[in-house]
């Protein structure tokens, strides 16, 4: 055999061939090794590690699952939890039995706040002995308020660095299980307050007794503040149990809340401490993401029974004061339950200007010194008020709102209303800019409208009906409005958001419009001479030459030019042309808030009836009627109308009804009902009585005397017009005399007439005042009760006896 000789070229060829086959394997390993090396280094090598892992994935023969797991782990370890979830969640269905992959995905879900998905994986591996896994299992259970399950997870940790953490969590969760007695409370003042607390014998009308309400506010020189609340209340009966749900609201943008401690002292003097399982932190407006910063810390106090005492101490850290360093605080002194001790302490740094003013409406039945005790400190000034044995307010029918009857303190660092106006205007001005979509909508709404008021009404009615109102009290979710375009797109907003959108739309239509800050009925009234943040609402002022119209777009059933009662007769701050000016919203006349009932009735010879009933509503009555029609199912509206007919003619039948004006703001609502009935008259032998067609009720003046005024809120007028056509076999035997009362409080007319076989009835009640003072009440009561007695008369009918020879 001839031996083949191979030259150098052959070895070169073999080497090249060998290298070609070997290269993919070497490269894949190389990328993976490099990636693992980079992964152990600092953040600056993160991108290189990601790149190498991705290159390793592209090579033939690569372990895709393992490399993707390592990539997900890399993202997790560098805090890119969302990306870790994206990668690991795609791997999990492939190998659910792989504990390392399941654990890492569960932890990633936890870190991103997706506790529901994390819990699913934790539950599937609940028998694991991995300490880290068990600890975060417990943490996830706590987030889902599954405290018993959390304790079980923590209890499975037997050693290592997570053991001490787990024990702390178990102690914190089960704090309520650690029973102590009142004697274990260190503070002798609190011990004595609990042991000597009175009960139902001393306070028979109370649902609870506030033993201590201690409020402290410390303003710091860096523009932050700390507010501390220490509250203790004794539960006397079911009416007082609502204190068992403690709520501490805060704005998470710049505020945090800490519950220092909370506990229930049982009637036998055992102390039950609140644990974490009793505390939750939730969004106040969960369904509205724009206001997710309005939050509330809720403490559900354990073992609340009659005779138990609830005590808690909470701190709110305010990390940014209004306008950089201002604050405003209002403090009502009396409440609807008795209070033994109420204290307020305010500390301000040196050089800080604090304005203080007290108000006494004149209804105080206890000695209250509203002057502070002032104490100079090394680095500031302390102001303190102490009140004791404050009696409860006993509610009366038609009494004024709480804020108008209690003594109060107002504290503010603002020097002028202009300062407040400039601050808010700076927050809102940039938010009124419109995008092209909103401008096109304005053009659509004002098309064909002749006058500026018609254009404004069209824009306002669209806003009131189409932009959903989120009832967030002004300041509760911050003071700064959202961008008009954002509100328009979402189709919802709170008062300040709706105000900036409406102003922007009106201005684009050429109508001058300005923000209005208002303290509505039921909130502290604006004082011209004491600038402070009393506002709970925002609305709009539109100008039409010399005429000004206040507009509240949050009221979906209020027509252009009208206002809800909460907005009427209130001092407001108008921010116009760089000026902050105080004006008063209108109190509409009684003729504006009007209810008219018309009924045309025909009685047949057999005494059955047929007729038409019409209701017309205006102003406040129209607002309420429109709301009822809008949010009541048609079948229930029909049932309600049938029940009205049945009330004056048992067995009556609704023949037809029609509602007009309900679908369009600006049009008064009219309800017309046609009916018939088997009976209307009351039999008295051979005579008949027509039911009482009007009259007044004196139920709200049943008290012999009052501690607080009668408050009607607004001026109103109601009118009833009835005509009843009698059959030829009946005539009027008795017609009640006319009643005409014109007093300083109201005008009342109750008048019957008879002609052409028809009984006519007219009744009018028109209020002249919104309030009857305590001093006037007895006189008012006498007049009203006399009126009630006089207005209950009825028309008497008698049968007509046919003359001899009549057919």
Task: Provide the fold topology.
Elements: H1 8-39, H2 46-57, H3 64-77, H4 81-91, H5 99-111, H6 115-124, H7 131-143, H8 147-155, H9 161-173, E1 179-181, H10 188-195, E2 208-219, E3 225-235, E4 245-251, E5 255-265, E6 270-273, E7 279-283, E8 294-300, E9 309-318, E10 328-332, E11 339-349, E12 355-359, E13 373-377, E14 380-390, E15 408-412, H11 417-428, H12 436-446, H13 452-466, E16 468-469, H14 484-490, E17 492-493, H15 495-508, E18 513-518, E19 537-544, E20 547-551, E21 571-576, E22 579-584, E23 594-603, E24 609-617, H16 620-631, H17 634-648, E25 653-660, E26 669-677, E27 682-684, E28 687-689, E29 710-711, E30 717-725, E31 730-734, E32 739-742, E33 746-755, E34 758-767, E35 771-772, H18 777-790, E36 796-799
Parallel strand pairs: 2-11, 16-17, 23-30
Antiparallel strand pairs: 1-6, 2-3, 3-9, 4-8, 5-6, 5-9, 7-8, 10-15, 11-14, 12-15, 13-14, 18-19, 18-21, 19-20, 21-22, 23-24, 24-26, 25-26, 27-28, 28-36, 29-35, 30-34, 31-36, 32-33, 33-34
Structure description:
It is built from 18 helices and 36 strands. It has 807 residues and is of the alpha+beta class. Strands 1-6-5-9-3-2-11-14-13 form a nine-stranded mixed β-sheet, with no helix packed on it. An eight-stranded mixed β-sheet has the order 25-26-24-23-30-34-33-32. A five-stranded antiparallel β-sheet has the order 20-19-18-21-22. Helix 5 (99-111) runs antiparallel to helix 6 and helix 8 packs antiparallel against helix 9. It is globular. The N and C termini lie far apart (156 Å).
């Amino acid at each position: 055999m001839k031996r083949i000789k191979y030259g150098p070229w052959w070895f070169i060829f073999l080497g090249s061939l060998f290298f070609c086959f070997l290269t993919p394997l070497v490269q894949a390993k190389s990328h993976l090794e490099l990636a693992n090396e980079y992964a152990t280094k600092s953040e600056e090598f993160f991108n290189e590690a990601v790149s190498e892992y991705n290159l390793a994935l592209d090579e033939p023969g690569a372990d895709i699952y393992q490399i993707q797991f390592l990539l997900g782990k890399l993202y997790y370890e560098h805090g890119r939890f969302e990306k870790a979830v994206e990668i690991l969640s795609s791997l999990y269905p492939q190998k659910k039995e792989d504990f390392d992959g399941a654990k890492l995905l569960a932890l990633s879900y936890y870190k991103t706040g997706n506790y529901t998905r994390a819990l699913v994986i934790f539950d599937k591996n609940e028998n694991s002995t991995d300490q880290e896994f068990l600890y975060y299992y417990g943490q996830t259970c706590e987030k889902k308020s599954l405290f018993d399950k959390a304790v079980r997870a923590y209890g499975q940790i037997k050693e290592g660095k997570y053991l001490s953490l787990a024990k702390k969590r178990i102690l914190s969760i089960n704090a309520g299980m650690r029973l102590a007695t009142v004697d274990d409370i260190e503070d002798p003042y609190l011990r004595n307050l609990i042991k000597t607390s009175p009960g139902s014998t001393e306070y028979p009308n109370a649902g609870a007794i506030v033993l201590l309400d201690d409020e402290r506010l410390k303003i710091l020189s860096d523009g932050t503040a700390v507010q501390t609340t220490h509250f203790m209340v004794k539960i006397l009966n079911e009416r007082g149990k609502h204190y068992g749900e403690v709520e501490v609201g805060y704005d998470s943008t710049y505020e945090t809340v800490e519950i220092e401690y909370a506990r229930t002292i049982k009637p036998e003097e055992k102390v039950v401490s609140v644990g974490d399982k009793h505390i939750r932190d939730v969004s106040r407006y969960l369904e509205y993401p724009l206001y997710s910063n309005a939050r509330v810390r809720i403490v559900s106090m354990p073992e609340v029974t009659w005779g138990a005492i609830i005590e808690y101490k909470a701190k709110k850290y305010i990390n940014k004061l209004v306008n950089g360093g201002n604050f405003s605080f209002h403090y009502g002194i009396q409440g609807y339950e008795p209070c033994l001790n109420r204290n307020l302490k305010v500390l301000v740094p040196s050089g800080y200007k604090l304005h203080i003013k007290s108000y006494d409406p004149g209804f105080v039945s206890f000695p209250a010194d509203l002057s502070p005790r002032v104490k100079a400190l090394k680095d500031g000034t302390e102001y303190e008020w102490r009140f004791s044995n404050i009696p409860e307010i006993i509610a009366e029918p038609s009494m004024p709102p709480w804020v108008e009857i209690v003594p109060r303190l107002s504290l503010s660092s603002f020097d002028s209303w202009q300062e407040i106006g400039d601050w808010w205007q700076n927050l809102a001005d940039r938010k009124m800019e419109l995008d092209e979509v909103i401008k096109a909508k304005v053009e659509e709404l004002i098309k064909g409208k002749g006058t500026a008021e018609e254009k404004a009404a069209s824009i306002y009615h669209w806003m009131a009906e189409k932009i959903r109102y989120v009832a967030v009290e002004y300041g509760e979710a911050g003071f700064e409005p959202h961008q008009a375009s954002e509100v328009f797109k979402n189709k919802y907003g709170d008062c300040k958001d709706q105000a900036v959108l409406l102003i922007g739309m009106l201005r684009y239509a050429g109508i001058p419009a300005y923000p209005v800050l208002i303290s509505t009925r039921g909130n502290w009234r604006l004082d011209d001479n004491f600038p402070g943040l009393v506002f709970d609402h925002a609305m709009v002022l539109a100008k039409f030459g010399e005429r000004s119209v206040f507009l509240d777009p949050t009221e979906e059933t209020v027509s252009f030019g009208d206002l809800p009662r909460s907005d009427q007769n209130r001092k407001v701050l108008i921010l116009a042309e760089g000026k902050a000016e105080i004006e008063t919203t209108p109190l509409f006349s009684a003729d504006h808030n009007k209810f008219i009932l018309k009924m045309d009735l025909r009685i047949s010879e057999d005494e059955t009836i047929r007729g038409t009933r019409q209701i017309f509503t205006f102003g406040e009555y129209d607002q309420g009627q429109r709301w009822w029609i809008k949010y009541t199912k048609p079948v229930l509206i029909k049932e309600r109308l049938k029940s009205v007919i049945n009330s004056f003619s048992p067995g009556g039948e609704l023949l037809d009804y029609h509602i007009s004006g309900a679908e369009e703001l600006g049009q008064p609502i009219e309800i017309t009902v046609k009916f018939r009935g088997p009976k209307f008259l009351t039999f008295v032998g051979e005579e008949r009585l027509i039911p009482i067609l009007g009259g007044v009720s004196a139920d709200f003046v049943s008290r012999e005397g009052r501690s607080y005024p009668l408050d009607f809120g607004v001026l109103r007028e109601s009118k009833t017009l009835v005509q009843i056509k009698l059959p030829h076999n009946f005539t009027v035997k008795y017609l009640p005399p006319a009643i005409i009362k014109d007093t300083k409080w109201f005008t009342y007319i109750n008048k019957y007439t008879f002609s052409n076989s028809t009984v006519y009835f007219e009744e009018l009640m028109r209020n002249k005042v919104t309030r009857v003072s305590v001093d006037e009440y007895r006189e008012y009561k006498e007049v009203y009760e006399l009126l009630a007695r006089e207005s209950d008369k009825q028309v008497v009918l008698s049968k007509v006896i046919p003359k001899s020879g009549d057919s």
